[in-house]
Write a structure and sequence with these properties.
single chain; 151 residues; alpha+beta; two-stranded antiparallel sheet
Length: 151
């Protein structure tokens, strides 16, 4: 009888790295979870979305758009997989087709998992929510091409 390769055994390095990244950014994720839970009383819905590697709070009642904190994405829409304009497009630097908001936010999840508690201070030092921020440009690039989530 031929031996089948154990696919779960070949995936353990990737799963281990994902688990370490999730653990490393846990303080950020807890803040995101508290933010998401605050909206539940006002109609927000929480659901784990494996593709995003994040707990997603949809229909969050305050603000507009989306915010990622660790492995939590809080957004005001009904669905995360909607088109959005890139930061460069909105800033008038170029004309680009819309990208998927889900892909853009997933890039931030990966950035958080690599930098953990260092992400927010570095993000703010790099310009915050603006086209100047290399973290935002990298997230747009990842959403456009599926590659290059790291600045």
């Amino acid at each position: 009888m031929p031996r089948r390769s154990d696919s779960s055994a070949s995936r353990w390095p990737q799963r281990s790295l994902l688990a370490l990244g999730m653990l490393w950014t846990l303080p950020n994720s807890l803040a995101g979870l508290l933010l998401g839970l605050a909206g539940v009383a006002f109609g927000a819905r929480l659901r784990w979305q494996p593709r995003e590697r994040a707990m997603v709070a949809r229909r969050w009642p305050w603000g507009g758009g989306a915010l990622t904190l660790g492995n939590v994405i809080v957004h005001t829409g009904e669905r995360l997989d909607v088109p959005c304009l890139t930061y460069a497009h909105r800033a008038g630097r170029c004309i680009e087709p819309p990208v998927s908001l889900a892909d853009h936010e997933r890039a931030h999840v990966y950035q958080y998992m690599l930098l953990g508690p260092l992400f927010l201070p570095l993000y703010l030092l790099c310009g915050g929510i603006s086209v100047r921020n290399p973290f935002e440009r990298a997230a747009d690039r990842y959403a456009r091409t599926g590659r290059g989530w790291w600045p």
